[in-house]
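tool_log.txt
---
The assistant was asked to compare two proteins side by side. It first ran the structure predictor on the initial sequence, then on the second. Raw inputs and outputs are pasted verbatim so the downstream comparison step can read them without reformatting.
(1)
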Amino acid sequence: MHVSPPTALCPAATGSRPTYPYAPSTQGPPPRLRTKGRTGSGLGLSFTLPGGPRSAPIARTATAVALKTHGLTAYVWPVSHAVNELVAVTARLSPGRELYVSLRHREDAVRLLVWDQHPHHVEPDTAALCEVRRRRALWLLAAVVDDWGGEWGVCEAPQPMRGSKSWVTLPR
């Protein structure tokens, strides 16, 4: 069976294969996993991953463990699917660049944020095509979030950061 390398979703991406800053098992630092916040203030988890094909299952596992640890087992299934889809798609938009994942539980809702370093396109047609491809690739995310009565979206990251923010909010 012939397996071709994944292609970038962005129409402006180069055809070259990305180089990754480290191999996950041997070189460089492992993905950082740290909880934030005061005791009793709810779930607060942030971590950074390389933009590569192995990042989605790592994000899925980390968020599932965090939710179970904080007694939020009802959220494990939808959040695992949401983070898997967001990280997989953003890794294809920003191959080889770090992704930031944030998971919070406040006021009976879980909020998931994935920030990628995909640059903003100055050409309007390219920007529109890139956005359409991103949203089309996230069809499964949209179905899961809709089924749970949540909301999701994508927007440009606020200055001075660059890239895009993808977010999901799931109510209890």
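(2)
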Amino acid sequence: MDRIDTTAFASLDRTPDRTPDRTPGGASLSAVPVTTAAMARAHVRAVVLERWNSPSRRATEPALIDLLLVVSELTANAIRHGDGLAGFEVTPTHEGVRLTVHDNSDVIPAAVYGSGHLPPVHHGNGYGWPLIIRLSREIAVDRRPGGGKTIRVVVPLQTSP
């Protein structure tokens, strides 16, 4: 089944003459296409720095590294195994960041509800899902009505004083 790639996410736009909706930190939101894991990581880092961090809490660098690893795995899986990235969303939550990745495949990965144990030997399945399971909470996979699936996870962020 052919589908149109509708990949988009909210990016921080600091163009002074634009006046779309503003985030609490003053940055505006606009939709831009995301086609790579690198683009998704850059956006997530910006959201954490601009919208999640505050004077009373800051994500630690190790927590940010874990978050970016989950972003990489989810987006790379959608591109490689999910017939393409069909959408990417990032939402700050009280405890961390909710990631939502849409792809074009109806196939739900067998390892998605696994134990999170790393395989002793690599036999064709990677280490991605065990890492996602270890670093994320509230993992959900739902088939989309028009085809494909949506994967949602919450990645908690440790804070520094």
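---
observation on (2): Confidence is low (pLDDT under 50) at residues 1-31. The chain is about 30% helix and 30% strand.
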